[in-house]
Amino acid sequence: MGDTCAVVWDESVLDYDLGGEHPLHPVRLDLTMRLARSLGLLDDVTPVPPRPASDEDLLRVHRPDYLAAVRSAPTSAWDVGYGLGTEDNPIFDRMHEASALIAGASITAAEQVVSGRADRAVNIAGGLHHAMPERAAGFCVYNDCAVAIAWMLEQGVERIAYIDVDVHHGDGVQTAFYDDPRVLTVSLHQHPITLWPGTGFATETGGPGAEGSAVNVPLPPGTGDADWQRAFQAVVPSLLADFRPQVLVTQSGADAHREDPLADLAMSVDGQRASYRSLRDLAQRYAGGKWVALGGGGYSLYRVVPRSWTHLLATALDRDLDPATSLPQDWLAHALRVAGNVPLPTSLTDGEDSSFAPWTGVTESTVDTAIRDARHALFPLHGLDPADVRD
Fold it and tell me: What superfamily would CATH give domain 5-382?
């Protein structure tokens, strides 16, 4: 077993660029890595370069006609369909190559962990969890999360848990494995009645033969750090203890932050840091320390994502940073040049207390109702008592 964390990175992943003022701008990745380096997190870390996913890799999840459409889209004179050429998923030059590299980067992270060269691996460029077998969706061309999980199953891994903390439902990954009992998909997200893609109800629990393999915890708009943590801790650890994954894969979208322009949850960077520490703890307790951490959404490009994912890198590297740490002047100077008139924070904290009160049953809180609904939908399928509130 390895005792290191691999950081999968090469600047070529910045070529996944949907153009112009698109919300999923690669500047957020560049600023994250610059901040991590400026803080010394990566001083003795040699990044692992990604390899592009092969057609064989992609076809474990995506349809052949969809791959052909992605390849031809930049030069096609016709409407290619397949969710391509929309406002969310504009066509861009070398789209297949850039998208295959993101998927390959997540496979590279999985390879590091499955081979034992590392216990943990991080690919902040990954987490494109909305892409479906036959179409692009939600800024995602290829579903690198599902492609990496499918690769691990092909290598003989028998049980994989996927936890998605993006503000949007992890619909593409759930779809890919809805009928596969080898994969437990867990998603905590803003309630689908209030946010795209409109899926991820607590009653979505897995297909025939895989009942209980899909876990959804839809949260009401305005959910902040304490309520988010209470929901997470009231549902997820018990299910992982029962499932006993061999590898934990996480999608670490930073868009549940209160400043994110595309959603309505109210977490802080401090709460997101706490969530990453919880994921690390779950990997240690239930997955033998094997953790593949991917990026995801996050559209406060300058103020939130670089700080949040710097905490993710620090957590995976066991180099936890004091939230009060000041942002380095060299990073601030560069960020100011690219951010324009956006005011920047000065430290790694939003000044919030990320502690929470454990769930003890339903109160008047709508979050507690969401917890109850998720536990009642899932716990009996795992032989667990939804009313048992013991730690």
Answer: Histone deacetylase domain (3.40.800.20)
